[in-house]
Every structure is written in C-alpha cells, then in structure tokens.
Amino acid sequence: MSTETDRAGWIEAAWRRERPDLDPSSIAVITRIWHLAKVFADERRRLLAALDIDPALLDLLGTLRRSGAPYTLTTRELAEHTLVTPAAISQRLTRAERQGWVIRTPEPGRRVAVHLTDAGRDLIDTVAGQIFDREGELLSVLPEPDRRALATHLERLTLALTTPGPMPALG
C-alpha cells in the first residue's frame, strides 16, 4: 500500500489488519464517494450562498431552463422532474414568484403552467455558468480522459443500482 493515502485508505487498511477474514475493498469506492459528495456539496453551498440563491430554487429554475424554449412546465411536470412533492413545488414557486423569476398561469383542467421569466433565465444562466466553472476547477486535477472514464463508470454504477428490478443477492 502507498505511504500516501487518504482517510478511506487508512480505514480499509485498518479493517484488513483487524479483520483479515473480511473484504473491506468497498471502502475504497463508497467511502471516497461519500467524502467527495460532502466536499462537492459544501463547495456548491458556499457558491450558492455567495450568489444568494438556495439549492431548492436552483433546482426549480434549472429544471425550467433545461426544458428549452419557451421554458414552461406544469407544476406536475416540475414535481416529477425535481423528485419533490407538489406541496414542495408550490412553496418553491411562491418564493421564485416573489423574486420575479417565474410566473404561474392557470390552464384548463386545474393545471398550472409555470413560465421562467427573463430575469429568472438571466439568473439561472449566470449561476449555472459559475457552478460549472467552479466544479470544472475542482475536477481539473484529473486529466480529461480520466474524467470521462470516471463519468462512464459512475453512470454504469448509478444505472445498475437505481434501475428497477431485482438487486443482486446478499451474501
């Protein structure tokens, strides 16, 4: 084992020493993912705080922006895309509407359309640009081919573990 290692490496080595009958190799992946998730989340929170926007509103505005012109979705579509309840969407919309970032309009059949305003689009474009720039800086320690390979492996793992169907057997 390398003399230079991170916390996950130390934890894995300690388990190997203390319980040689176990295979703690999952620590090399999972503990590092947890640690990096915290690092990335903390960094994003700092950036969003500096930009005076919270993650929930970022998610709402980003979802509308990614939907393409005319940047309009129903409240039901927003709830489906953001994986939150209709009540949570309603709260987010109220806050975004107060800021002038979205407009709600009633549609036939008790549906409500949500439109991203020019101010909302300008804001999300600015915020997204700053997020992508900062996260690109964080990932720049990896050469581009390694970043693409990592993205491919993470996508494969995500799909395998989140696609409905039988999970691999335990034991």
UniProtKB/TrEMBL annotation:
GO molecular function terms noted in the UniProt entry: DNA-binding transcription factor activity
Pfam entry (one): MarR_2
GO biological process, one term: response to stress
Domain HTH marR-type span(s) in chain numbering: 26-159
Gene3D superfamilies, sorted: Winged helix-like DNA-binding domain superfamily/Winged helix DNA-binding domain (1.10.10.10)
Protein name stated in the entry: HTH marR-type domain-containing protein
Organism: Actinoplanes awajinensis subsp. mycoplanecinus
